[in-house]
Amino acid sequence: MQLVSLAQAGHAVTNDLLNADVDFENLLPPAMEGLDVFLAKKKKPMPKSEPDQNGSAPVPTAPATSWFSSSKSAKKVSLTSVTSIVDGLKKLYIQKLKPLEIAYHFNDFVSPLLANSDFDAKPMVMLLGQYSTGKTTFIKHLLKTSYPGAHIGPEPTTDRFVVVMNGPDERSIPGNTIAVQADMPFSGLTTFGTAFLSKFECSQMPHPLLEHITLVDTPGVLSGEKQRTQRSYDFTGVTSWFAAKCDLILLLFDPHKLDISDEFKRVIASLRGHDDKIRVVLNKADQVDTQQLMRVYGALMWSLGKVLNTPEVARVYIGSFNDKPMNEAATGPLGKELFEKEQDDLLTDLKNIPKKVCDRRINEFVKRARAAKIHAYIIGHLRKEMPAMIGKAKTQQRLIDELENEFGKVQREFHLPAGDFPNVEHFREVLGGYSFDRFEKLKPKMIQDVDDMLGYDIPELLKNFRNPYD
User: Fold this and answer.
1) Residues 398-436 as b or e (16 or more Cβ within 10 Å = b)
2) Burial class of residue 164 in the structure, from the number of CB atoms within 10 Å of its CB (0-12 exposed, 13-18 middle, 19+ buried)
3) What is the pLDDT of the chain when averaged over all its residues?
4) Rounded CA gap, 168 and 245, in Å?
């Protein structure tokens, strides 16, 4: 701006102009000629000023003031003004998807409403496994140091969900505090109540790895039905919530703990729909020799085959992810080479997470939009089946009992894929707290907005930011 002022004052613009002997104190500011005319052309004509309720006319704003002021409503901002793909997804969510979710109570049935912090959050990696499979040690091995509040031992030591994030100093923040911070993506956890939030905390520490990803340490999954009832919160529901937010889920196994308990089976079942994020890690593999490892690997694949219910084989990383020297007496030279290759493969997977974060955001957004659309069809169908006057309670109970058949009717009527429908038992459980005649009727305009978003807006957004030649 000083160069512009000097040029307008008649000085010749040279390399040494700013170092020359110029009276900067008495130099006039640069004159922006033609700016007001340009803004007046762009600006819409204002209606005639009318006195407000107090009788005083509104004060007109200067063109320059309106130029710098920002619009409060995100709906008025066009998609041409966004600066990134994530920024565009935020606008699309507020304009087109959020109204549909609010109208049909999507947040009560499937997932809480999204905030800006959910879009801006760093990618997350969650570790799941039975107690003493090395989850906390794995995080310590990645960070090359211990995080605040970490406890390691052979018994169930980690009794809470711990989010390890980057921060200015080393400290632990309680769950109730972190859940109400607007810049943190954990506000949705308040739906699990104080019983869970007292078992949730955030550990912050300055670390170069945590500048790119956030790690989620979980309590060890218990092994018996009797022990499961002692949890004061919905453990499976919480893991399902984190699974939807995470970019990678690591299932850790120990060669001496290959049995998949009832609770672990439920946890793995709750990861349905996130199969592309799951990686299996056979940890502490140097505790057995090569022959035993072969048998352990076979037993693990057999156990997983019964739980995952897929014909494809899950990718299993074999290694010993801790800071101790490898037990070469048991593994031998071949085992050491195998573990190093497997460890490199897993670390490469972790390093690629920040590169793929934008694609993952789009993937999760499209998945959510499809789920919200099907949810709206189901709620609209249940509302349509209700009688106008008599027999409402009886009809509602019949619809809940025959929910699977109603899903089939919706699927056939709107030609929807069966794999996108929610879990019948969970849906039936939540429906019990609602009166169907108070549901919104199906609004084709809202459904059309989401279809337009998936068919036109998101492809246009990707085209604008992915093509370097435009």
Assistant:
1) ebbeebeebbeebbeeeebeeeebbeeeebeeebeebeb
2) buried
3) 80
4) 24
Relative to beta strand 214-217, strand 161-166 is antiparallel
Angle at 156 between CA 154 and CA 158, to 5 degrees: 110
Round to whole Å and give the CA distance between 431 and 66.
48
Give the DSSP H or E segment for 125: strand 124-129
* DSSP string computed for 60-82: PPPHHHHHH---S-GGGS-GGG-
pLDDT tens digits for range 370-422: 999 999 999 999 999 888 888 888 988 999 899 999 999 999 999 988 888 88
DSSP label at 160? Answer: S
> What distance in Å separates the CA atoms of residue 17 and residue 68, rounded to the nearest whole number?
31
d(CA 316, CA 278): 10
Separation between Cα atoms, residue 324 and residue 283, nearest integer Å: 13
Integer Cα distance of 441 and 376 in angstroms: 9
The size of the chain, in residues, is 470
Which residues lie across from 285 on neighbouring strands?
none
Torsional sign, CA 126, 127, 131, 136: negative
d(CA 401, CA 24): 82
Query: What number of CA atoms fall less than 13 Å from residue 237's CA on the CB side?
Result: 18
In the 3-class helix/strand/coil scheme, how is 368-401 assigned residue by residue?
A: HHHHHHHHHHHHHHHHHHCCCCCCHHHHHHHHHH
Alpha helices in 173-283 (DSSP H): 175-179, 193-197, 225-228, 235-245, 262-270
CA atoms within 13 A on the CB side of 272: 16
Residue 330 — very low, low, confident or very high, per pLDDT cuts 50/70/90?
low
The CB density around residue 439, as the number of other CB atoms within 10 Å, is: 20
3-class SS at 279?
A: strand
Report d(CA 133, CA 153) in Å as an integer. 10
The Cα 267–Cα 261 span in angstroms is: 10
- Reported as a single tens digit per residue, the pLDDT across 28-78 is 777 777 767 766 666 555 444 444 444 444 444 444 333 333 344 334 446
Q: Strands (DSSP E) along 181-294, which ranges? A: 200-205, 214-217, 248-253, 278-282
